[in-house]
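Quick note —
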Amino acid sequence: MDAKICGIKDSKTLNYIINHKHPPKFIGFITNYPKSKRYINYEGLKKLINIDKKKINFVSVLVNPNDEILEKIKYLNFDYYQLYDVDPKRTKIIKEKYKVKIITAITIKNKNDIEEFKKFESTSEIILFDSKGYEKSIGFDHRLLNNVSTKVNKMLAGNIQYDDKLDKYSKITDIIDISGSLETSGEKDISKIKIFLENINKIKNEN
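Predicted structure written out below.
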C-alpha cells in the first residue's frame, strides 16, 4: 500500500517529506480551490514545486478547472492532475491535451455513488474514492470499496487518521490519501507525518 500526502503549501514540510527515508509515492497541492485553507496560489505553487522531487509524483488537485488555470500550470512540475467535478468527456480532453496522468476523484455518500467510477476507468490511471467534504475531513463507509474490482487502481481518502491501524485499509485500497489528520492547528505537523510514513512503511514490509 502506497501513500499520498495532500495539501502541502510550505517548503520546510515539502523538503522533509521528499527527504524522508520512507517517502510517500504522491504529494498533492491544492491548485485552484481557494475555499481550502491548503490552497496555494499560482506564483507560490510555481516557486514551491520547482525542486528535485526525486521519485515522488507531484499531483495538482483541481476542482472543475477552467482552461485558464490548465494553461497556466501546464509547464509546472506535475505528474498527475487530480480532478473533482469533471465529467468523463472533459477528463479525456484534459488528459489528451496536456499529456498528463489522471486521478479521478469520486465523492461518496452511499453505495450508488461508488458506481460512478466505471465512467472514468478508461481515462484515469487512479480512481480516488473521497468523502463529500472536499476540504473538510468527512468520512464515509470505506467498506463500500469491497465491491470495486481489484483491477481498479484505488486511492482512498476521507477522515483517515495518521495513527490509525492502517493495515485495515490494505485489503480495500492501493493508496491512502491523507491531509487533515496530519495537521495541528491547521498546519502540517512533521511529527504526525513521521508517524504516518513509518506506519505505511511497516505495512509494506509486512506484505
